[in-house]
Amino acid sequence: MRRLRAAAAPLVLILFCGTAAFAADVTVFAAASLKEALDQQAKQFEASTANKVIVSYGASSALAKQVQSGAPADLFISADRDWMDYVEQRNLLARGTRVDLLRNSLVLIAPARSLANLHIGPGFRLAAALGNEKLAMANPDSVPAGKYGKAALENFGVWTSVAKQVARTDNVRGALALVSRGEAPFGIVYATDAQADTGVRVVDTFPPDSHPPIVYPAAVLASSKSAAARSFLDYIRSPPAKRGWEKYGFAMAQ
Amino acid sequence: MTELSADEVGILTLSLRVAIVSVACSLPFAILVAYGLARASFPGKTLVDAIVHLPLVLPPVVVGFALLVLFGKRGPIGGLLDEWFGIVFAFRWTGAALASALMGFPLMVRAIRLSIEAVDRRLETAARTLGGSRLRVFTTITLPLALPGIVTGTLLSFARGLGEFGATITFVSNIPGETQTLPLAIYTFTQVPGGDPQALRLSIIAVLLSLTALAASEWLTRRSAHWQGDDRR
Amino acid sequence: MIDVDIGQRLGGFHLDVSFSAEAPIVGLFGRSGAGKTSIVNAIAGIATPERGRIRINDAVLFDAERRIDVPPESRRVGYVFQDGLLFPHMDVLANLSYGQRLRDARERFIDEARVVELLGLGGLLRRRPRTLSGGEKQRVAIGRALLAQPRILLMDEPLASLDSARKSEILDYIERLRDELAIPIVYVSHSIAEMTRLADAVVVLSEGKCLAVGAVDEVIGRVASEREPDHDDAGSVLDTHVTAHDSAEGLTTLAFDGGELLVPRLDAAIGDRVRATVRARDVSLALARPADVSILNILAATVVAIDELPGALVVVRLAVGGSTVVARITARSSRQLRIRAGLELHAMIKAVSFDRRSVGYA
After folding, report:
1. Which fold has domain B6-227?
2. Global confidence as pTM
3. Pairs of residues, one from chain A and one from chain B, whose beta carbons lie less than 8 Å apart
């Protein structure tokens, strides 16, 4: 028994290490579609400044709600303005730090092996192409990618014919995964997502005027106590960072 | 191929820490509740029993949501804890531990209760005539004889806590290094293009951990039964 | 001095007893269900009576009116259970010391070494209860109760689960306890033989009520055979002392106020007091003193009373000198011999009918 107790002591210490403060210098809550690109930016920032960056990815809607509940984020990057407005209206942003960071475009995808051929235009025959199967989209009621997608389909008068066949995922990467695995014959994601996954191919791109402009706002949160947060935000807007974004298919907003 | 990357070690350590802390903190309560249900009779006992078993049958996301409402930073309990003691559960590994503890609690109580009920009460009576107070009898006679059930309950609850997902992601979200336990990490990898191999690796680790916990539970139960002088098992 | 006056209702059973007794060993005698165990449970504090009072020497353990109910752990009552109830997860030594550790050093009057020696536990200390025989378990149970430094020892049918060879062995140990330690013992049993051998004072119980209290030879002889006449060992108890031994023949002579008895050789010294049970079924009657008969003990007796029993049996109470002897014979024989009060005849008892169990040392 005594030996057990002796062995347990160091184990307990190890377990409780790092319980005091949050372990990172900058905590970012970012839209799911930013994953590969932002991870890269974070790595470079960590290398050059010795600051630790943690990113939690998810649907902008879910993240905004978490920020509202007091999640300990320093920086929030949303995939649409609505959710940044949501947070701003609740006075949760650090004044003067909100900027438009990136732009993106919306595409219709199919599994890489698919030979489907559709041209996006008014009344295009998406429902017929789907048959009995599903259209993979992020939740069109709340998640930015889904909202853009629904707006675009409505614009072409196609939404009502496919609405009942939408497989809703809780963020855009979920929709991407469904198409990539061949579980859904079609999906609507960002162009950058399609670029990131070799398991899908772009069938066609939605014209930019068929949906609200896809803009990624970023801001420092009012509750943030991180000195490095602002420098990280500046870093990802800087010219050296621009190349990093463009490599993944993003365009800078300004 | 068989070595773990630094990230994977981090995820594993976090998961183990969350599961171990959740079990260690809920064990005293579980023993108390199990003892009360096994031995005491009081009005509303059936209700208490039902409430204890709720997390077993409720959708985990309901438990997570309830935790968010009560223990979130703005919640009635969470707000007070933060103000008075500086204890925060929301979006922290402590919250993940709380979620795991709640989900595993019914398993722990059940196993311990059965074990306590199996202890011959006349042995407790004999101990009292020898001068043992109720507390001393509990710690020297009841608990040691109930040990197999305590071990089983602990390990079952531990295995359950390792696999806890719904309540965790709803309550403390998915923050790498802080709340991204093994199940959450696997979930995240399923949504990363080309992340399937990593998801698979982590899944295998999850299976191995659970198997180890279950096998250890079986072995320890037998050993403690033998140590108690009961070779029937 | 044990003073018990309690009442309790347990389901359909109604316990209502009141008695005082003082003796090294007080026996609680009665059939199963008579209430013996309920009484010792009340003395130990593990059952609470509805009314009454329990006092041991000067300590009041329970008093319903004054709302005194000392918890069992504070009563210092040692309890040896019928099943031993040794703790299976501890070895013999840990079992023995369980109660000892909880007592103040000032209150200790018996130590481990003494108990181990008294009960022959030396070789058992590291063993686990499950590896012990029935007799060994009981000895450990007795030792454990003693080491808790009790002011009184309760034994609830401690021989019930043992075979007769073990019974004898444990009886020897209990006699040693009585002789070498000063702790009063309350001994519960439904066996007349055990009562005869061990108890000095006996409380006879039946259906929750106290039938009689008194010295063992009066009470067992009179009441046991009257109220429990079909009890195999029912009979009378003679207070005798050893006057001679005959090693060649293997016999011992016991003298009492009604004459002499020849019994198989006893391991006792000349002059030792011995209590002999004479079973009613072992006593035959003859109007004239028979000659050329194998029965060694033929005593002159006078009939005091005759009781009829269910079936074709009759119990005849005889005065032999100053003592009472009880005989059980058929009603037919009673009629044929015209047995009536006042008749003088001979009571005959085979020497062989006196065995180990029927002889107790006082």
Report:
1. MetI-like fold (1.10.3720)
2. 0.77
3. 65
